[in-house]
Amino acid sequence: MGSGFKKGGMVRYFAVSVSAATGGTASGNGRFAKGKAVTVVAAPSSSYVFDGWYEGNTKVSSSTSYTFTITSNRTLQARFKMIQYTVSVNAGTGGTASGGKTANAGSSVTVTASASSSHIFDGWYEGNTKVSSSASYTFTLTKNVTLQARFTIKTYTISTKGTLGSASRRGTANHGGRV
Fold this sequence. Notes:
Layout: E1 2-6, E2 9-20, E3 24-27, E4 30-33, E5 37-44, E6 48-55, E7 58-61, E8 65-69, E9 74-82, E10 84-91, E11 95-98, E12 101-104, E13 108-115, E14 119-126, E15 129-132, E16 136-140, E17 145-153, E18 155-161, E19 168-174
Parallel strand pairs: 2-9, 10-17
Antiparallel strand pairs: 1-2, 2-4, 3-5, 5-8, 6-7, 6-9, 10-12, 11-13, 13-16, 14-15, 14-17, 18-19
């Protein structure tokens, strides 16, 4: 706090001190005359969102631009949170899938598929787009994503040959199918 003179009397000044936690920047430091409107501004970095302005452990505003009337010294901190995304996984017929979770933006995520004994793994799909042919797929999280593990039934080639004559037959059959 400080004071000074103006026409008609003494003016009191108060200090505003702002800081930023990890994930962004903050501005608005200074000395201001009592009763004046003061605005402090926070800006999140990429992969972060603004959480709020805090005075100690008390949240005083959720707005990135916080305006208040100065009546005392203020120490404010802009706090930020990492953006989080959700990975959802599901499995088509013939296997299982795991690895769905919520994680911070930029995280490395691994999803895993396992085919049943009657199927083989075809690939990981996002909608109708195949994004990986590997049963264990690792990627960097940049958005919410829904992945489906797709499987195909095993197919066998059948070939017969007669030993007493000239009969022969060729074809295919699915696992568990009748021949």
